[in-house]
Amino acid sequence: MSAAVGAERPQVVSHVQQALSYTVFDCKWVPRSARLLCLGSAARGTGIVQLYELHGARLELLREIEKPKPIKCGTFGATSLQQRYLATGDFDGNLNIWNLEAPEIPVYSVKGHKEIINSIDGVGGLGIGEGAPEIVTGSRDGTVKVWDPRQNDTPVANMEPVQGESKRDCWTVAFGNAYNQEERVVCAGYDNGDIKLFDLKNMSLRWETNIKNGVCSVEFDRKDINMNKLVATSLEGKFHVFDMRTQHPTKGFASVSEKAQKSTIWQVRHLPQNRDIFMTSGGSGSLHLWKYQYPAQRSKKDSEGSEMGVAGSLSLLQNVTLSTQPISSLDWSPDKKGLCVCGAFDQTVRVLIVTKLNKI
Amino acid sequence: MPVWLREHSWRQTLTAVYLSLPLRGARATPSSIFCSEQFLKVSIPPFLFEAVLYAPIDDTNSTAKIGNGNIFFTLYKKEPAMWDSLTLANTDKEKLQYLRENAVLKAQEKAKEETEARKITKQEHKKYTLEATMKVEEAERKRIEDLKEKERQKVVKELELWKKQQKDGDKNKSIQKTGELYQEIEPLKERKNEKMKKTQIPNEGTSKTRLKSAKGSCSIFSQNSKEEQLPAPRAAATIQISFTPRVFPTALRESRVAEEEEWLHKQAEARRIINSDLSELEDLKEEEKNPDWLKDKGNKMFAMGDYLGAVNAYNLAVRLNNSLPVLYLNRAACHLKLRNLHKAIEDSSKALELLTPPVPDNENARVKAHVRRGTAFCQLELYTEGLQDYEAALKIDPKNKIIEKDAEKIRNLIQGTMQSS
Questions:
Q1: Does A15 contact B152 at a Cβ distance shorter than 8 Å?
Q2: Nearest CA to CA, how far is A44 from chain B (Å)?
Q3: Mind listing the pLDDT tens digit for each residue in B115-144?
Q4: What SS3 class is residue B270?
Q5: Core-most of A234, B27, B46, B54, by most CB within 10 Å?
Q6: Closest-CA residue to B233 (of A204, A160, A149)
């Protein structure tokens, strides 16, 4: 804990800690409620979904669901607010959408990939954004597939390596730029440091770059606006913030990078209520809260007269070490500003409250 | 012989004795005074004054004042009584001696006790300061903790408040929803009724069921209208991607980049160097000036068994470019076949030198170099050196059975020679 209970800095207060009997890979708030979901893998090799409710200073277990395969990731991004179906990706490459009230049979199920689904994201649901709800999954088999829950068995978009080329694991995926019904963009990060931006309207690769170290997590600051900022975190403690408003024909997007911790940065999550504040979680069990400041001019002309973006600057608002093991998952509550849940590899899930975010 | 000081004067009260001792010019220091309960001695060499006191005194509180050429003693009596004289009369030598010794011992004990007491007080002081600092730090820590607790509680209260709001909000919403549903059902019912009025009578029988289904279908209606707002699922398409190529098959985090870069650099350099000096080279054909071509030629000749020719080819290649390790490696193989063992050793050593830094890329080459040098050593009967090289080769490539077998053979040979010698 930082020693100075300084005047205006946001504080990260650990509200509840819950020890679990399985490895938790992902934790998510259930939208419009004080309930959270923990997804993981039990020691006996089965998948666990646990639903908790926040009651005062403790978490009460409402429901536990066990599935045959360990579950790696989940999202509520593509369901409506009334239904709140959970989409999960498991170790076997299956994409399932569950109704948590009746979890025996999935609402939608497909064996999407040959290997573990590392990351999943959903867009178009929860009353956020426009367009059809879609789910994107990124897998260890090197492919990134976009699914529409109304279409069974085949993905609506498939980003796969050229036949015969060696594949690289896809570690993370994120949706963005979904500001109207047609536009949508998927960003994927791979283990060799590649970041690729796919435009789903034109079905083409819009931009790619390589940040040298494997990309652990990518996230746009908002999915439902014209793409503004993208944060990509990687191994060895580095993360990059790309300014996505201006794309230069050869140089791509401008970026600023920061080396925060000596260890891998596992996750980055933007605060839903303020898109310039985000939290990164690290392999040393620490959380860092950052603020991005825009530069005076977001774009400028280069020597040939084409527009080039200008990256801003980052400042560290707070940092706290909660655990000795990596904090692998992080989620902000969309309903209460500053409430977040994080799951770590020491088999605990913690609910944290970040104070004074109003004053930033 | 000490000079006794006898000119002392004294007077007494009920509780104290005042003794004045003139010093005949001698300088007195506190260490020259020795006092115990019943014995008083002043020793300033060569002067000496001793007194066995009439009654015991309280030597800790008694004082001596040194100044003005004399010492003024203030001795407090242990028992208030008037003394007949200052000293005990008729004391014999033995008693005196005994008293003296006793006095000395007592004084020593007292000194010891005093130091003990002082030590104890010092420790206690230390403890006290430690406790005091600990308390201060505790207080500080507590203050910080309290601040944090307050924050936490504030935040928790807010959370509870928000949760309550959520619950109420949900209740309201559900009430609203059912209200809306009813509202939706009403106009639908009306529409259905109108339709039925228009249709013929036989349909009236089914009107009831239609009404019922109307209620159920209103939700379908609402869903349908919503679905119409969403675009149809995308037309399926595939985007082909390719990944950033790397010279080495491993990702950045797995490779030893610095060394591999160095190795690549060296190779590139080596290729660029062309030692184009010697005039004899002028009458060679163009291709014969290319070290790679010469290397290939050499390899072919080696394969055919023309070892001398191969050596010539490699020699020329080396003259043109002396930093390609493969040339030395191959030449070493030729020398082995020709049984020029020393030259073979030289060449493999040069090859190994050029094959630094050790990276997975030049593993095979290094294994070969070690093996060739090892063979040469063994043929020269320098078995230990040979074994060293074989072991080095094994370290690089532990799965090679042939190298293992040969290493075993050498080990046995060494043991055999050692036993026999």
A1: yes
A2: 31
A3: 999 999 999 999 999 999 999 999 999 998
A4: helix
A5: A234
A6: A149
